[in-house]
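Dear support,

I submitted the protein below through the web form. The confirmation email said the job was done, but the results page showed an empty box. After a refresh the structure appeared. I'm attaching both so you can tell me whether what I see now is the final result or a partial one.
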Amino acid sequence: MDVQAGEFVSVIGASGSGKSTLFKLITGLLEPEQGEIKMNGVKTGNRLGMVGYMPQKDLLLPWQTVVDNVCLPLEVMKENRRQVLPDIREWLARFGLGDVEHAYPDELSGGMRQRVAFLRTIMTGKELLLLDEPFGALDSLTKRNMHSWLLGLWGNLQKTVLFITHDLEEAILLSDRIYLLEKDSIQEINVSLPRPREAEIIYQSEFIAMRKELERLIQHET
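What the results page shows now:
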């Protein structure tokens, strides 16, 4: 499995196929029994803190405001918050959160909470971001809105993303490539749809055909 800088790569597969275990291996929470993991082409034994990680639940601190939650990685890294606050406010505006920077998490919609959690992940400053079903808990309409938002934002992020999802439509819409984890192997699927993409691409025949093929591959495994 190989992920290039700047790519958006999704990981799909049946429950129990090892998707979350793969993320734990990459983050350094687990070590492989065989094979090796390289970052920027270099094998490293201690990977803890080398990537940004966003779980399905936003895990926002309820007693902290939006801007405080976003700044949490900076505090962990002991950076001067006051110096970077103008940049953070610019990011908040790009994420559509400029008007709620002083709001608390329980005052936000589900989609806004996920935007805050995503921005907090970006604030780690890591080139590789691991997103573990970040939109999985959202209702279908909010999820669609998040897809449109992320597609519009993606070109300027300049990040590498590994993205776990059970939503095949989501995987095709967002990704450059998809890895299907199987019982004893891994299969790579290239997404040839051009970028930039609009959410309406899901109605095109090429998109529908690719989704049918992914469904066939997964059903074959299960």
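Response: this is the final, complete result; the empty box was a page-load delay. The first strand starts at residue 8 and ends at 12.
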